[in-house]
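Table S2 (text version). Query chain:
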Amino acid sequence: MEERKIHFKVNGNPVEVSVKSNMTLADLLRTKLSLTGTKKGCERGNCGACTVVMNGKAVLSCLVLAPRADGADILTVEGLGTSTNLHPLQQAFIDRGAIQCGFCIPGMFMSAKALLDENPKPTREDVKKAIAGNLCRCTGYTRQIDAILDAAQKLSKRT
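Corresponding structure-token output:
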């Protein structure tokens, strides 16, 4: 299968890479760009572990073909914060004890980030709806929802 070059931004950095037409965005991020924070769970769009933000919207990268990223602006969990400067979402999850095994958390962060960018003052129901596609086998979601609401408050105080 023939490859084609695509150009896009990932975590604010310009990228040029050759991809096959049947490669998924999840595979591109993990194998060609070594951004392994994007997890591959079900590979069918059911678990949310592969969620990234593409052009401001949360998308399941296992369902997006890599060529669709051409010209896009993509944010992965690696672009959310750093070990010395955590994003408020990351800090709130730590503070609330909302991380168990961690497998689902990168996707949940990205779903929450897309929500907070679109709706800086979400209700509890808004948060539930935003993370409904992110499956977590370790918890009952209460701590994650509380953490996202805490992060929303912290972020709204910044502006």
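Notes on Table S2: The CA atoms of residues 124 and 149 lie 7 Å apart. The longest strand covers residues 3-10.
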